Amino acid sequence: MKPEAHPASNGTGANVFEGCAANLPPHSGPFLDVLRVACVQIDPAISGKAKENAKLVEELLLQAGIDHPGQVDLLVLPEMGLTGYIFQDEKDIQDVLESVRASRDAGEDETETCPTLHLAQKLASSLQCYVLAGFPENAHHASPRVAIDRSPISSSSLCIPPCDSRTHDLIPTDRKRTDLYNSAVLADRTGNLIHVFRKHFLFDDDKRWAEESPGFEYVNLPDLGRLAVGICMDLNPYEFKAPFEAFELSRFAAQHRADILAVPMNWLLPTEEIEPELQVSASANSHANPLLPSVSTINYWAWRCAPLCEPNGEGAVGHQTVVIAANRCGKEKGKTFAGSSSIFAMENGQQPELLGFLGRRQEGVLVRKVYRKRQ
C-alpha cells in the first residue's frame, strides 16, 4: 500500500529513528514476561512458486538460527507472502487461492493446495510458537474461527462481532460479493489453525478480486495477551479518503488495549525513493544499499499508530503495545515494495520506540525481545 504523502514524523513531530537502538535495555518497572517476536521479509518468486517461497522462508529462519522451540513466541510472515500480490481479477487469482476447509479434508495434499496454511502449521508446530501468515482465501462456506474447537483457545477469546471501522458514507455500493478475501491465518503453538483475520480496508489491487471483511478483530492468547491484526492497507485511512486523524486500526487496538498489533504487508516504496532501474547498480546514494530502510515509510507506520502513544488518547495510561510491521521486498509487475519491516514498542504517554528494522531490499528475519511492562 502506498500512503498519501505525509511528513516523516510520528504525529508529535519526532522522528522515530532518534534514539533507536538495536538492543534496548529493559523498561523500568514491573514485568510479567519477555516477549520474543520475529518477522520474515522475503522477495517472493511469483507465478506458481509457492513451494519455493515456503522453502525460502524456512531457509531464512535457519540462517537466522531459528530452528528449535523456545526461540520465538510469535512469528509474522508478509501479506500473501507465498503467492505474490498483484492479480488482475478473480479468474487470475483462482489457482493460488487457499481454503481452510480444503486444508482439513482427508487426503488433501496441503503443500500443493494450501501451501501457506501448511507452512504456518509446520513452523508453529516445529518452533512451538504462534505463526501469523498472509494468504489469498477462498472462503466459500468457511468461518474465520477455523479450528477453535481443537485449540486451547476458547471461542470467547475472540472479538465478537468484528469492529466495522469504515467511514460509512465512503463505502462503495457497486462491489459484488465474492467470498474471496485477502487474509492472514493464525496457528497456535501446537500447529492448530485457530483464526483467520480478513482485510478490512482494500487497496486498489485487492478490489479486483477480494471482498472487504466486516471489521477489525483481536484474539486473546493465554500466554501472549491480546493480539490485534490488520493487513497492510488497514493501517491507512479508509479509501484514502477518511480523516487522517481517525487512525482506524491503531485506535481499535488502543480502545481494546491490544498487547500486540501485527500487520502483514505488501507496502509499496514511495515513488521518490525508487531509482531508475539502470542506475541502481552504479548508484552511490543511500537508497542503493539494500541494508538501509525506507525511513519515511517506517516513520509513517509509527505515525499511523499515534493512538497507542497519545497520553490522553484511547488507551490506558502506561499500557504497552508491540507493533510488528511485516513487509516484503523486491518488485512485482512493475511495482516496488518498501521492505523495511519493523518492530516497535508503543506505550501510552511515551514516544514510540523503534526496536529494529530490516533494509528495503534485504531478505531476512528480524527478531527482538521485548521486556513487557505490566500495570
Report the order of strands and helices: EHEHHHHEEEHEEHEHEEEEEE
Distance N to C terminus:
35 Å
- Report the major sheet: 6 strands, mixed
Number of strands: 14
In CATH, what is the class? Alpha Beta
Structural class: alpha/beta
Any idea what the CATH superfamily is called? Carbon-nitrogen hydrolase
Average predicted local confidence, pLDDT: 85
Helix content: 10-25%
Number of domains: 1
CATH topology: Nitrilase/N-carbamoyl-D-aminoacid amidohydrolase
Sum up the overall morphology in one term: globular
Strand content: 15-25%
Residue windows where pLDDT falls under 50 for at least 5 positions: 3-14, 17-32
Q: From the structure provided, what is the oligomeric state, counting identical versus distinct chains?
A: single chain
| CATH architecture classification | 4-Layer Sandwich
Which strand order do you get reading across the main beta sheet?
A: 5-4-3-2-1-14
Q: Radius of gyration from the CA trace?
A: 19 Å
Number of helices: 8
